[in-house]
Amino acid sequence: MIRELKIDSDSAVRLIDKEKIAIERIKAFEPVSNGFMDRPYYVCYSGGKDSDVLRILFELSGVPFDLVHNHTTVDTPETVRYIRNIPNIQISYPELSMWQLIVKKGMPPTRIERFCCSELKERGGKERFISTGVRWAESIKRRKRTSLELVTNSIKTRVILNADNTENRKAVENCKIKGKWAVNPIIDWTDEEVWEFLNFYGCKSNPLYQCGYKRVGCIGCPMSAKQTEGLKRYPKYKENYIRSFERMLKERREKGNEARTWKTGSDVYNWWIQKVKKDNNRLDGQISFI
C-alpha cells in the first residue's frame, strides 16, 4: 500500500503521481506472476540515492525481488559500510578484483575501454528481469533510454522499448533472446523528486552526500569529473592502482608487449589521470581518446 504524501503543494502532487506510475511499471512487468520468468526481479543496488529510491519503491509495491549489490572492490569505504547495513541485501563478489583485472587486461580502465563496468559493476542478472535506478536527469546519454529495455550482449542487438505501451507485454512474452530485461521505474524523475521522496520516507542515504558528493561511484572512475579528487581522498587506493600498473607492466614485458612510453606504475598513473593543460591544449593522456 502506498503511503500518502501529506504535503499541500504542486510538487507533492507531482511526486505522488510519479510514485504511483513507478510502482505501476514495477507491477506491470513483475516476472513471476506475469509468467515471463520463474524468478523474481533482480534489483540492482549501488548504494546511491537512486538505488535507495528503487529499493523503497519495490518495498511499497509488494512484489517479490532480490536486492543485489555488485561489489566492485573499488567502492568507497563509506559506501561499503552503508550497503552492509541495508536489510536483505545480497552482496555479489567478483571473480577478479579491479587490481587483478588491470593486470589481465594489460591496461587501465579508460573512458573507451570500460572493462571495470562490464566485469565488475554490471555483471550478474543474466536471463533475469532486472530493475535499475537509471534516470534521464543524470546524463545526455541516458536520455535515450526508456522505462523498459532488452539488453543483450551485443550493442548492435540492443532493443529499447517503452514500458507504457501494452504491446510490449507481448514482446516480453514472445522474446527468445537471452539477455536482461530491464525496468527503469524512475527514468523520468528529477534530482529534486529523488530527494523529496527519500526525505519523506526517512532515508538518510549514503553519508557521502552529506560530505558534498552529488554522485556516488567507484574510486578512480575514469568517467568521473572528480577522478583525481577521489584518489586524493583515498590515498591507499591510489597506491593500489600504481602497484597494479607495476604488475601490469611486468606482465606485458613477459609477454613481449612492452609499452613504448610507460616505464613505471607512476608513468601509467600520470597518463591515466591527465586532463587538460592551462592553455587548453590536451595532454597525451587517456582523456585525449574521447
Quick synopsis:
The protein is 38% helix and 10% strand. It is of the alpha/beta class. The radius of gyration is 21 Å and the shape is globular.
Descriptive key words:
290 residues, alpha/beta, disordered N terminus, disordered C terminus
Distance between the termini: 47 Å
Task: Using the alpha-carbon principal axes, give the shape.
Answer: globular
So how many helices? 10
Total beta-strand segments: 7
Protein model, in words:
- By secondary structure, the chain is α/β, with parallel strands linked by helices.
- Helix content is 38%, strand content 10%.
- The protein is built from 10 helices and 7 strands.
- The protein has helices spanning 10-28, 49-61, 77-84, 98-105, 115-121, 167-174, 191-200, 227-233, 235-254, 265-273; strands at 41-44, 65-70, 89-92, 129-131, 148-151, 159-161, 180-183.
- It has a 7-stranded mixed beta sheet, with helices on one face.
- α2 packs across α7 (191-200) and α4 packs parallel to α9.
- The radius of gyration is 21 Å and the shape is globular.
- The termini are far apart.
- Mean pLDDT is 83; it is low at 1-6, 154-171, 276-283 and 286-290.
